[in-house]
Design a protein that fits this description.
Largest sheet: none
Structural class: mainly alpha
Radius of gyration: 37 Å
Family: Belongs to the HSBP1 family.
Organism: Aspergillus mulundensis
Oligomer: single chain
Strand content: under 5%
GO molecular function: transcription corepressor activity
Distance between the termini: 101 Å
Low-confidence stretches: none
Helix content: over 70%
Pfam families: HSBP1
InterPro entries: HS1-bd
Number of strands: 0
Mean pLDDT: 79
């Protein structure tokens, strides 16, 4: 029975090293959280950059389509008609 009493202090001593393990676990969680936050910030920055580029390209495409439409309307108004002489007519097969 005395061996059980001897194991109790050893068991208590065994729990003491777990305190640094909890601190290490907390540090690891904090580092992991910081890494995830950094990754999310990087992804947000990349998403913003890609979105800005896409909207810029959409605006450029819309501007070019407006210019094309205006030039076609100007050609029709001038009496030349649409530029059908240079555009091939699709044939039904």
């Amino acid at each position: 029975m005395s061996s059980n009493n001897d194991s109790t202090p050893t068991g208590t001593t065994a729990l003491s090293p777990s305190a640094p393990t909890q601190t290490q676990s907390t540090d690891a969680q904090a580092q992991f959280t910081a890494a995830v936050d950094d990754l999310l910030d990087q992804l947000q920055h990349k998403f913003d950059t890609v979105s800005r580029e896409m909207f810029g390209k959409f605006d450029d495409m819309a501007r070019r389509l407006d210019e094309l439409e205006a030039s076609l309307n100007a050609a029709e108004d001038a009496g030349a008609g649409p530029a059908t002489a240079t555009t091939p007519t699709p044939t039904a097969k």
